[in-house]
Amino acid sequence: MPPPGSTARLGGVPGRIQEVLERKKQVILYGPPGTGKTFWAEEAAHQLAAHHNFSAPYDRLAPEQKRLLDGDDGSKGLIRMCTFHPAYGYEDFLEGYRPEVLDDQLVFSLHDGIFKVLCDEASEKPEQDFYLVIDEINRGDVPRVFGELLTVLEKDKRGRPVTLPLTGEPLKVPGNVYVIGTMNTADRSIALLDTALRRRFGFVELMPDSSVLGETVVGGIPLGPWLDAVNRAIVDHVGQDARNLQIGHSYLLEAGRSVADLATFIEVIRDDIIPLLEEYCYEDFSALEKILGDGLVDVGNERIRHELLDVSKQGEFVQALLTPYPELSASPQVIASEIEAPIEDEEANGGDTSEAVH
Predict the structure, then answer these.
(1) Using alpha carbons only, what angle is made at residue 93 by residues 77 and 154, rounded to the nearest 5 degrees?
(2) Are residues 216 and 201 in the same domain?
(3) Is the pLDDT higher at 138 or at 356?
(4) What is the band of 102 on the pLDDT scale with cuts at 50, 70, 90?
(5) pTM of the model
(6) Distance between CA 210 and CA 22 in Å, rounded?
(7) CB-count burial class (<10 Å; 0-12, 13-18, 19+) for 168
(8) Which of 250, 128, 279, 117 is nearest to 182 (CA)?
(9) How many C-beta neighbours within 10 Å does residue 302 have?
């Protein structure tokens, strides 16, 4: 077993994140909604911190070891998380004045932001690695939030002080601080990011991956091939930047597994996927029809036939959803499920009934 401080090589998406962090110290995961960006950001941070500090995967750590990474009872762990939004600012990230009541008087006091606190603690514990996960990094005004931090964020400038304007104190970003951001390209293309930010971060693209849905067939609909067909239709008919407006596989996952029953699948289509597609095809019902089919989309009246999204009309719903993609009915997944179904029925009836006739 390697000693603490030596990190194992991770595989898959965490491995790609690890490679970028070793080279750049910060990475942004970007892609359409539902592609697992936040999941993989947190997973990579936990696995890297676990291996570095305890030479073991995160799921094998003892409770007290996990608390060191995640924090507990008000204490801050080695892994921290924040979410950028339009109101998130420099004062939240680095330092700024915040209102508070002191002796029944409203006063403004200077407070350190999440990243400054993290850097200070990392400087005091150089043997440990610290991770900050910034969810939805593109939803904030990044140049304003980062301020002069952009100067010293680069790997070759780590440890070099920059003077903060409010306190006049020097800020150093230690080499044991790593930043993992996530970015939904349906909100904003990567091409629109601040150039200075792009140069300091490495980027890992996460696109829809139908393979995680396996061979699941729900009501005669093979989930993986159906998702691929819908995403191809989005790219063909939605228009500019449609590649970034696809549907991620996690919409069809429940507790890490493929949606397994038709009633749940109908709910996902009704509550998640149709509203998303309506946003993508805003007021263009002809494009929406090309994706969902004329069984679900009434172009003439510019409406979704929500009456088919009732659990009592499962057969009509399946037929409507398959209409634009008839080839899915002959997919290997559907054929395999149809072969297995009679076997399951036979076992439920106590075996081969043909022998009882003779």
Answers:
(1) 85
(2) no
(3) 138
(4) confident
(5) 0.88
(6) 29
(7) exposed
(8) 250
(9) 12
